[in-house]
């Protein structure tokens, strides 16, 4: 009876450990807050007051603000996978007013392959003995004797 109880407890722990774990990352403004913003009227300052400043903005210029939220699911020790991803982009005109408000989802995303940007070197890590053996045939005795004279 005790063996069955231990087996049942072990099975329960294993099933609970393999259950999904959800994690939420990021922030996007609520629809009510976004609907309060008026394109062409509200400025960068009023957007910051209404919905807050995002953690990401345009790379080269601050003419766009990006709010990102992602929900990921993980089963046991496996890698987590995105369940949903939302991005709200607020772009600003040159005069500082809102030019456009866009919403994107996970289905709008594309997989982007990043380059490694690692320069391969031809230098190898040779030990002292390997260096001596490799250079043994490269010695020119005639040149070595001519330098001494």
UniProtKB/TrEMBL annotation:
GO terms for cellular component: outer membrane. Keywords: Membrane, Signal. PROSITE patterns: PROKAR_LIPOPROTEIN. Pfam families: BamE. Residues 26-101 form the Outer membrane protein assembly factor BamE domain. The keyword Membrane applies. Gene3D superfamilies: 3.30.1450.10. The keyword Repeat does not apply. This is SmpA / OmlA family protein.
């Amino acid at each position: 009876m005790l063996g069955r109880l231990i087996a049942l407890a072990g099975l329960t722990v294993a099933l609970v450990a393999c259950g999904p774990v959800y994690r939420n990352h990021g922030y996007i403004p609520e629809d009510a807050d976004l609907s309060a913003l008026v394109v062409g009227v509200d400025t960068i300052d009023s957007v910051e007051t209404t919905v807050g400043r995002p953690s990401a903005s345009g790379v080269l210029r601050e003419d766009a603000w990006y709010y990102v939220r992602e929900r990921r699911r993980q089963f046991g020790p496996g890698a987590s996978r995105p369940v949903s991803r939302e991005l709200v982009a607020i772009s600003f005109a040159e005069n500082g007013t809102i030019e456009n408000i866009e919403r994107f989802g996970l289905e709008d995303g594309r997989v982007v392959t990043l380059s490694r940007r690692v320069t391969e070197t031809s230098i190898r890590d040779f030990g002292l003995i390997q260096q001596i053996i490799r250079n043994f045939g490269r010695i020119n005795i005639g040149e070595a004797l001519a330098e001494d004279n």
